[in-house]
Amino acid sequence: MKKILERVIAEVIDHKAEGDLILSTAKSLKLSSQRGAVSEYKISSSQILGVRVIKDDRVGIAYTEATDDESLRFMIKKALQNSEITEPNPDERLLKLSGDLLDDVSYDEAPVDIALKTRKAIELETRVRELDPRVVAVPYNSFNENEYHSLYLSSRGRFTSYSDKSYSITSSALLDDNGKKANFYDFHLAHRFKDLKWDKVTQTALLHAKNLLGETTLPTGRYHVRFTPDCLKSLFDCFGNFYSAKCAIDKVNPWADQLGQVVAAPDLTITDDPNPGGCFRHSRFDDEGVEKKALTLVKDGVLSSLIHTSVTAKKLGTQTTGHASRGPTTSMNVSGTHYVIQGKNHRPLPDRYLQVIQMDGLYSGANRVSGTFSVAVKGYLWENGERKLTFGNVTLSGNFLELLRNVEVAGEKLEASTDESFFSVPLIFGGLSIAGA
Question: Are 427 and 343 in contact (CB under 8 A)?
Fold first, then answer.
């Protein structure tokens, strides 16, 4: 395939333009079940080749799913035509990078028979029903197998190759106890079939669903709150625009002019790290072929950097941080890797706090410019180290800007999200508003 990419680049150069290519190929298998039988069996594959051409300060993008000569020539022609109707953008240029970067990972694994995959996938539903007669449905259950390969080549001579394979399983439990219903789901990721934790997802889903059957509301007021790593990840992802240089340029980043200023509690340090210990998959380079390095975003509460592509960096007079994100069919954007939140001067957990295990409607209830959010939450009330009750039917409201300024560090050990892409020490957020009874 690299030779095909080289032919396309040669023709782009013949048109007195510069450009780069992204080729993405993917294969996937999905199995789901209902009532002990397969309800979905889906095999899919895709291949997309996209070109970005830059000529006379104008950028054009086009793509094709076919790689015959006629399709490739048409793709280049279309990209050049698209560039002619765009506004000039002198900030978008190919970086002067050459050489190869390879990040192709393979895992030692014997072939797994489809009959075994099918049987185990069905158990994600049947096992939950067997464990508790109150289970009336397992609405979310699936086994997924995915292979992904991406190639990048620029007219400057930079070539990158990335490939990976992963498995994921999901299970859930919808319980009905005399008309009172509760639902929870869990999932797990692995690079090898034999490493999947089948019992973990069914038992975790059932455990929290059982507890949520006994949920009660809380008095309206202000509480100390601790989020599970998955919920905390969702919160940080929702307000990821705070770290984005592109959002700063688009005037939708409230930290746009806060570099060097205090934006969080002085005990907090936030890093974007492409390869933290324990991550599911490291990330060696971005979609401009730039090698990634750990980047400190917030140091001891002070905003140190935003994440940049070469385009945002040139516009703001700085250097790219290696966070370009682009697919074969899309224009340039920025994207982080793994958030790692560390702290110092940690204090004991408060005597009384809420542990949030589930949030519903976060994005619909969030203003990503002002930082305000309102979200339905469920979880546990802890008092003096003991879990006292399960709560639900309440709404948590806050402001992400104030959240970070008022956080307290409650431990030293990093905790990972379920997908192993987010890491944080235990954090307690004080004075959050709960609307309940």
Answer: yes
Q: Is the full-model pTM beyond 0.90?
A: yes
* pLDDT value of position 241: 96
* Distance (Å, whole) CA 269 – CA 194: 36
Distance CA 294, CA 301 (A): 17
Q: What is the pLDDT of residues 352-368, one digit of tens each?
A: 999 999 999 999 999 99
Do 63 and 328 form a contact (C-beta atoms < 8 A)? yes
Rounded distance between C-alpha atoms, residue 31 and residue 54, angstroms: 43
Question: 2-212 in CATH: which number?
Answer: 3.30.2290.10
Give burial (CB, 10 Å; 0-12/13-18/19+) of 246: buried
The pLDDT-based confidence of 253 (bands split at 50, 70, 90) is very high
- The domains of the chain are located at 2-212, 214-236+345-435, 241-342
What 3-state class would DSSP assign to 163? Answer: strand
Both tokens assigned to 160: 């990158």
Q: Give me the helices (H) in 85-214, please.
A: 114-131, 198-213
